[in-house]
Amino acid sequence: MQVYLVGGAVRDRLLGLPVRERDWVVVGARPEELQAQGYLPVGRDFPVFLHPQTREEYALARLERKVAPGYRGFTTQFSPDVTLEEDLRRRDLTINAMAESISGETISTESLSTGTLIDPYGGQRDLQARQLRHVSEAFVEDPVRILRVARFAARFADLGFRVADETRELMKRMVASGEAAALVPERVWQETDRALATARPEVFFEVLRDCGALAVIFPEIDALFGVPQPPKWHPEIDTGVHVMMVLRCAAKLSLSPAVRFAALMHDLGKAGTPSDRWPSHHGHEELGVPLIGALADRLRVPNEYRELAVLTSRHHGVVHRAAELRPATVVELLEKTDAFRRPERFNELLLACEADARGRAGFEDREYPQANYLRRAREAAAAVVLDEGERAELKGPAIGERIRRKRLAAVATIKMGP
Question: 185-196 and 284-299 helices cross at what angle (nearest 10)?
Fold first, then answer.
């Protein structure tokens, strides 16, 4: 029996990045041998065990074979005869197909230090070259790997990583053969959510577009490319380019994947503008709402993401015009967005709107005083209370009307500023 540290922990250590979790492969062992050492079996499709002290995952070396289209069409073979090289060969990228050995025939908490690097497929070379390269032609057997490559491209974009030419071509062939259409919605969203949490989430969608998968998986986003906008407000002109810039800006403004998703969704309605009305897009805010709903239904997007995206699509134009709004319109905006009961979500809406305003060529460093103005307006309106005398003399709807008038007066005192 031999134990190896594998995958992301090896990769990140070689890149000098923090190692957040460790995965292990056990070669030359049977399930009953690990159970005899106190390991807890947790794998349903193939044997995976939790270490009795560290709770880290230990998987028996295995082979996989595709038997049907789609993510779930695999059979798994494990036995003591499967070698480490065979186990590593089934992985997606060379940088994820490296291992490090540990000493000893048995597994214990004292033997969790790493040792000799084992790199049969050139992962260390590709780390140095900043290349995302597939391990073997077995890559085509799992279309989720298209999403994983795009996610790793987003995660490591600031380190200079790019998808290797041969892997780009392989991904294009997979999309052309219909593999991307077979992706399970839950896995699409799982990888997308992870990509939204990276430092450069826009790269995820750019890689998918490059190989043709964006049109299959996210047709609502793909349709934005080639749709022009007024150059005065959008020097980048192309709506798809603008949305990628907005997503990048959102990633700088907020760590929240929900904010980033809202930024990505905010202009979907522009794809529905008839071409004879270009570059104007009157009414695109409301046009985007059913498109967000359709995408969210299809991919099982969490409600908190969907709700924030709908609010952003519907209200971002009003937020941008905050300096022009009458106090009554400001209070109406606060009411429609449920800002009094959900101030945290309202702040997320403002962050997504700020990303939209600054996600334009030449606008990246511009101030966005609208956000602070609306935050202060909400605070002032939310602080309104009725004294005992007012409550004693009012009943029913009159109470709400008095509160509203006082909120209007409070908002009227707030001035636009930094």
Answer: 120
Q: In angstroms, rounded to a whole number, what is the distance separating the alpha carbons of residues 152 and 203?
A: 9
Cα 198 to chain centroid, rounded: 7
Q: Tell me whether residue 128 is exposed, middle or buried, using C-beta atoms within 10 angstroms of its C-beta: 0 to 12, 13 to 18, 19 or more.
A: exposed
Distance CA 52, CA 33 (A): 14
Helix/strand/coil (H/E/C) assignment for every residue in 33-67: HHHHCCCEECCCCCCEEECCCCCCEEEECEEEEEC
219's enclosing H/E stretch is helix 219-222
User: Both 57 and 168 in a single domain?
Assistant: no
Phi, psi of 162, rounded to the nearest 5 degrees: -140, 160
In this structure, the answer to whether residues 196 and 250 fall within a common structural domain is: no
Residue pLDDT, tens place only, 212-222: 999 999 999 99
- Measured between alpha carbons, how far is 152 from 168 in angstroms, rounded to an integer? 13
Asked if residue 306 is part of any domain, the answer here is yes
Phi and psi at residue 76, in whole multiples of 5°? -120, 135
CA angle 52, 57, 62 (to 5 degrees): 125
65 neighbors 75 (Cβ within 8 angstroms) = yes
Judged against a pLDDT cut of 90, whether residue 72 lies above it is answered with no
**pTM flag (> 0.85):** yes
Q: Which amino acid is at 33?
A: E
Residue span of the structural domain in which 118 resides:
2-129
Same domain, 59 and 16: yes
Using the 3D structure, point to which of 110, 129, 148 is the last residue of a domain: 129
* Residue ranges with strand state E in 119-236: 131-132, 162-163
Specify if 98 maps to a domain.
yes
Q: Which amino acid is at 345?
A: R
Q: For residue range 138-194, list pLDDT tens digits in order.
A: 899 899 999 999 999 999 999 999 999 999 999 999 999 999 999 999 999 999 999
Convert 195-216 to b/e letters by CB count within 10 Å (16 or more is b).
bbbbebbbbbbbbbbebbbbeb
Quick check: is 283 in a domain? yes
CA 165, 167, 170, 171 torsion-angle sign: negative
**Exposure on the CB side of residue 222, measured as CA atoms within 13 A:** 14
